[in-house]
Amino acid sequence: MTAVDDRPRTTGIVKVFENLDVPEGFKVELLRGVIVMTAGPDVAHNDIVEAVQDQIPRQRWRRLQTQDIAILEETSQPQPDLVVLERGAGPGHGRLMPSEVITLLVEVVSKTSMDRDYMVKRSIYAAAKIPAYFIIDPVMAQCVLLTEPVGHGEDADYRRQRITKFGDLTPMEPLDLDLDLDTSEFAAYENVRPHRYP
């Protein structure tokens, strides 16, 4: 089991971030030294997270929502929509989960998070060597599974990318999850301008 200091020894922005008084209904993350505060998610967003969580077998995997991640080398403490790690791995208490024990991170794109989810977090998670990053995008009604992280810092990325449309089964075999994720319940956002990611 890997342990992590619940209070990183970094000074400056990390201390400011950890002492923020966050208004109820907001989410705050530290992404490469930048504090990002966002409003609570759309109901469709939460339904998607629940649908994914329900399909990942609890007997083998811990499926954690609103879990802060410790990525100290990146001066980052993101809070993905869903964190998946093997049952028995990671600490059983504390605010931060060490990135080294994580198998999969899931982010559901919001109407304002496209750049963060597709660019900033993609690079941060790859730099942290998270084996798989799964982006669920209700704006474009697609899923993007990223695997095989390579590189360091802002140049880090994932070598493999698989895109599937909502309604298609999404194979999760790179994670040894032995399942095809059913995306038929995923709802697309309405009246949102399309983007060009990934």
From TrEMBL:
One Pfam family this sequence matches: Uma2
InterPro entries xref list: Nuclease_put_TT1808, Restrct_endonuc-II-like, Uma2
Keyword flag Hydrolase: yes
Keywords recorded for this protein, A-Z: Endonuclease, Hydrolase, Nuclease
GO molecular function per UniProt: endonuclease activity
Putative restriction endonuclease domain span: 17-175
Protein name: Uma2 family endonuclease
